[in-house]
Specification:
The complex is a heterodimer of chains A (about 180) and B (about 575).
Chain A lengths: L1 H4 L17 H17 L5 H13 L4 E3 H13 L8 H17 L1 H11 L4 H15 L7 H13 L4 H10 L3 H10 L1
Helix pairs in contact in A: 2-5, 3-5, 3-6, 3-7, 3-8, 4-7, 5-6, 7-9
Chain B lengths: L1 H19 L1 H32 L10 E6 L9 E6 L14 E4 L17 H7 L4 E6 L9 H18 L8 E5 L1 H12 L7 E4 L18 H4 L4 H9 L3 E2 L1 H9 L3 H14 L1 H15 L5 E2 H13 L25 E6 L7 H11 L3 H6 L3 E7 L6 H4 L1 H13 L1 H6 L3 E9 L14 E7 L2 H5 L6 H32 L2 H9 L2 H8 L8 H12 L9 H37 L3
Parallel strand pairs in B: 3-4, 3-5, 5-6, 6-9, 9-10, 10-11
Antiparallel strand pairs in B: 1-2, 2-4, 7-8, 11-12
Classes of the chains: A mainly alpha (about 180), B alpha/beta (about 575).
């Protein structure tokens, strides 16, 4: 009775404090999705690398500080690449991540066109991805499969890349190699 | 010579007696501890008076320089922005984003975010970030509102951004406790000013909690709501005495307030005194609010729970929508916190979103971490927490910033010999952000629709009682309370009295100083295995247990009352 007296519907089952939704947001969202979709085929080496890295790594649904630190070190080590401010890196990651959520197949299909056709450059991409993802431990089966899939897309033999760069080295040496980089 | 000999024989005598009677040992120790205890109380009273005499009392452990004085803005407020001068040996990197720590104005004075080297400011400086601090003066400017403060803080942030043109990103803003909601409101209105936001122990969903715990959320409804706030403001002639807020806080844990805090000092008088005095310097400094400010906080937030629901509007009619925030939000809360339980710190996510995809659709990144044990104050005061959680957040702030949108839990794994790649780990923990879903937040427990209705009923009752008070009682109260009466009541507040009474102002305290000196010179701490010490410990535990039991009972009663008033009368 008290509830009814003060105007609270005693039968109400909806949460009484919930943020309202707006059709405008839905409209903006659709526009943004369309924009992202049209951008899937756009981009270069950088977009391709981030996309491949996210694709292989996103299945573990966790980001480790060691992986990020490795990315940072690679950035410092690569003097030939133009510098990329953190804010741009941030939006690059966001965009590629959203694209992968929206249309994974199209993203993968467009991947080879983004990166340079040179097979050495492509192999380097695979090595970098492996370096970042293995900074917290060995890759899972699913991640290996995805690595393989990316390698096939780029028409590079990932086994060759792996053998020459990482796999033949015992774990301790991988660590040394990372320290050096 | 003679005196020396005398003392020698006395010592011998005492030595042999004490071998026979541990009781004598204990009595000497207890008598000395008692005197030393009262001397600490005297020092506490003096420190309180010293703080009171300052224009800008604070407990910051750092040298600061004033950057912006909020009192000189177009809409003056009692807030100030200061730059923390990095201590010797600490180099800040101008390329790294600055940190801005905002302290809560919830009854206590400012400075707790930079209380010592192991603090939010300390760890951010150590990670190479320039640090700024937003504090406040003890008295509000006439007529200042919560919105004015938000405007001032926006000006502060603009200034910090302007001072760091080289920095790679926008400042990271830390809002402690009640500063957390203020930061979130501002970030919703001016998202472009913010880098990552860290809110520590901040309540944002005020009805949330679980049955049998979190009784503070009922306090709004039980006494008929916020008319009491209005009355307190009227009794202060438009000013709300911060000591009331402190008292409300203390009453949450009577065993600690009435007994443990003092007992811990008494039992460890030789080692605890400086820590106790340091903390009390903060705890005893009370700051005031304008009656309008506290009325807004109580009505809109604590009782109304309107923030996350987007029901608060600024004076120009802009609705505050927390979904507007573009920067990553780091929520740090604890299961041991009975002031802001995890449900209140995280429930807003459920009020705003239906699933993680919706969070992503707004481009928002939310990272939370729930400490298992630490209490409310420990979240910003504890050295261990500062080193671990705050330290990891500071050194990994860029990682948090580039996380793709979504909901994550920050997990800290101790660095051990088996940890691979330790050279890319900062600090003693490896931080990992793991993706979570809203079900993980729901699993913390919360309200069913029936609970929601009870809180909504309490909120409506509060509004009705407030308007009744304003119509029929307020004019009378306002005409009766004169300025001297308000001043007198302010001085007589029991929290203030306990500090005043034991300072050097009180002539009866004068001998304590000399006696304490003597006790210190002749200090004979009792052996740790003395049976009477064990007995004393036992008695103390019983006192704590009975005070806790009394509190638990009264909490259960208030929960039942709240349930009954909203439900059974239906």
């Amino acid at each position: 009775m008290l509830q009814a007296a003060v105007g609270v519907d005693p039968g109400a089952t909806r949460p009484l404090r919930k943020a309202p939704k707006s059709p405008l947001h839905h409209q903006l969202l659709q526009a943004r999705i369309a924009e992202l979709k049209s951008n899937i085929v756009k981009g270069g080496e950088r977009e391709g690398l981030i996309r491949a890295l996210l694709y292989v790594g996103m299945n573990r649904a966790a980001v480790d500080e060691r992986g990020f630190e490795t990315v940072r070190r690679i950035r410092h080590a690569q003097e030939d690449m133009p510098s990329l401010p953190l804010s741009e890196f941030k939006s690059l990651v966001r965009e590629q991540f959203c694209m992968l959520l929206i249309d994974r197949e199209a993203c993968l299909a467009a991947l080879p066109a983004l990166v340079s056709p040179d097979s050495d450059a492509r192999r380097k991409i695979l090595t970098l991805i492996r370096e970042v993802l293995s900074s917290r431990g060995t890759l899972t089966k699913e991640e290996e499969d995805r690595m393989h899939q990316v390698a096939q897309l780029l028409s590079v033999d990932d086994r060759a890349a792996g053998d020459s760069q990482v796999r033949v080295l015992p774990k301790a040496k991988v660590r040394e190699q990372l320290k050096a980089s | 010579m003679h005196a020396d000999q005398n003392k020698l024989t006395q010592d011998n005598l005492m030595g042999s007696v004490s071998k026979l009677f541990p009781a004598v040992d204990y009595m000497i120790d207890a008598a000395q501890r008692t005197i030393l205890f009262w001397d600490v109380m005297r020092q506490r009273g003096n420190a309180y008076r010293e703080q009171l005499a300052k224009t800008a009392p604070n407990v910051l452990d750092y040298q600061v320089e004033l950057v912006v004085d909020g009192r000189k803005l177009d809409r003056p407020v009692n807030y100030i922005l200061v730059r923390v001068v990095p201590p010797k040996g600490i180099d800040v990197d101008p390329k790294r984003r600055p940190f801005v720590v905002i302290d809560p104005r919830a009854g206590h004075g400012p400075g707790i975010g930079g209380f010592k080297a192991d603090s939010e400011i300390g760890v951010a400086l150590k990670a190479g970030h320039s640090c700024y601090f937003v504090g406040f003066l003890p008295d509000p400017m006439p007529g200042q509102t919560i919105e004015d403060i938000a405007r001032a803080e926006a000006i502060f942030l603009e200034k910090v951004i302007a001072l760091h043109p080289e920095a790679d990103e926008k400042p990271c803003v830390i809002g402690n406790c009640q500063a957390g909601w203020a930061v979130m409101m501002l970030a919703a209105l001016r998202p472009e000013l913010f880098g990552p936001i860290i809110i520590a122990g901040s309540p944002l969903s005020y009805w949330a909690g679980v049955h049998g715990k979190n009784p503070m959320r009922y306090s709004g409804g039980l006494l008929g709501g916020s008319w009491l706030t209005a009355l307190t403001g009227d009794l202060g002639r438009g000013k709300f005495d911060g000591a009331w807020l402190v008292q409300n806080f203390e009453s949450q844990n009577p065993a600690n307030t009435l007994w443990s805090k003092q007992y811990n000092l008494y039992a460890n008088i030789d080692t605890e005194a400086s820590r106790y005095l340091g903390f009390e310097r903060w705890w005893g400094g009370h700051v005031n609010l304008n009656a309008e400010e506290i009325q807004f906080i109580v009505d809109e937030l604590f009782i109304g729970n309107n923030l996350a629901a987007g029901k608060i509007q600024t004076s120009d009619g802009t609705a505050i929508d927390l979904r507007n925030i573009r920067s990553p939000i780091v929520v740090f809360c604890s299961k041991g916190d009975n002031i802001t339980p995890p449900q209140q710190a995280l429930g807003w996510i459920l009020d705003l979103y239906d699933d993680v995809d919706e969070i992503r659709s707004y481009g928002q990144t939310i990272v939370y971490t729930i400490h298992e044990t630490v209490g409310h104050l420990g979240i910003f005061v504890s050295a261990g927490v500062a080193r671990k959680e705050h330290g990891e957040f500071s050194s990994n702030i860029d990682l948090i910033d580039v996380l793709p949108p979504g909901l994550y839990e920050a997990v800290f794994e101790a660095k051990t010999e088996n940890t691979i790649n330790t050279d890319s780990v900062s600090g003693d923990w490896v931080m990992r952000c793991e993706a979570r879903t809203l079900d993980d937040i729901r699993a913390l427990g919360g309200n069913d629709p029936q609970d929601e209705r009870r809180f909504a009923t309490a909120a409506r009752l509060s509004e009705i009682n407030l308007s009744l008070y304003r119509t029929f009682v307020q004019p009378m109260v306002r005409s009766v309370v004169s300025e001297p009466l308000a001043q007198w009541m302010y001085q007589m507040h029991s929290l203030r009295m306990q500090y005043e009474l034991f300072s050097d102002q009180n002539p009866l305290m004068a001998p304590v100083r000399a006696q304490a000196q003597t006790a210190r010179d002749q200090r004979k701490p009792v052996a740790a295995d003395n049976p009477f010490v064990a007995l004393q410990e036992q008695v103390s535990k019983q006192i704590v247990a009975s005070l806790d039991a009394a509190r638990d009972m009264s909490e259960r009663i208030s929960e039942r009352l709240a349930d009954a008033s909203g439900c059974r009368w239906r």
